[in-house]
Amino acid sequence: MSNELEAFLEYLKVSKALSAKSIEAYETDLIQVEEISKKPLIALDTLAVFQALSSYKNKRTLNRKLSAINSFFSFCHKREFVQETYKIHLSKIPKKLPQFLSFKEIKNGLSLIDRSTWIGRRDYALLLFLYATGARISECLAVKEEDIEEEWLHIRHAKGEKERMVPIASVALKALQAYLDEAPFEKEFLWMNYKGNPLSRISAYKITQKYLGVSPHILRHSYATSLITGGADLRVVQELLGHASLMTTQIYTHIQKQDLKDTVDVCHPMAKEQV
Could you confirm whether 220 is annotated as catalytic? Predict the structure, then answer.
């Protein structure tokens, strides 16, 4: 690893306060380019970069690596490691709408849960909690009892180390209390497995797959979609989701537009007949 790359990774950790996983992703992508090129990143020009990445056919993978390279050279220019910098344009990728579930689909999945056991109550509470808060699964699994402040969730371990407060629907709070009242273990974290240990991401994934057929992240998309189609302001949704940029939140406006179009197609007479 070159000295410049080491300095860049330290900058991401200290100044940008990125998560360990994000820093690891940057490191992996950038080291791969150095290894393929057999030169330090700082010595590469755009042609050398494209030659190093020519084997990557997946545009999303390619764009991730190019974005990492752009960030690296921007950092090097600001630190005066290089006199000039360059920015490589990313490949255009058609926008893909996020998958989501309707409230009816979520209720149907919840109805399958046997709540006569504490494990069943946990599963029921977990699914409601994810849909009611829009929390990332990593944020959800890091929650402790003291993070539930009356009718609010205090998310302390957010992406980018940015804390936020999210209101919780009363039905989700009732389900959560019913689970906690029956849980047979002393606990540090809110969500536990059958042994009393913290619930893992894999176990959470299995729970959402079992009852809803989706990953936990789809419930976050469903939360945002419900808010947008219900008329919520985009900036409010951005704040609730903890997005650093409004651009990230704007993908949900495409769902809103489709919802409006579907409504017109069903309700407007000119959508069915020729004039």
Answer: yes
Q: Domain 104-263 classified CATH 1.10.10.10?
A: no
> How many CB atoms are closer than 10 A to CB 68?
20
> Is the model's pTM score more than 0.70?
no
Look at residue 94 in the predicted model and tell me its pLDDT: 63
Per the residue annotation, which of 159, 164, 187, 254 is the catalytic one? 159
Mean pLDDT of 55-71: 87
Distance from C-alpha of 199 to C-alpha of 118, rounded to nearest angstrom? 14
161: left (phi over 0), alpha (psi -120 to 50) or beta: left
Catalytic residue among 65, 121, 220, 221: 220
Active site residue 243: yes
Can you give the residue ranges of every domain in the chain? 3-78, 104-263
In 79-215, where does DSSP find H-type helix? 103-110, 118-133, 137-141, 170-182, 201-212
Per-residue pLDDT tens over the stretch 103-114: 999 999 999 999
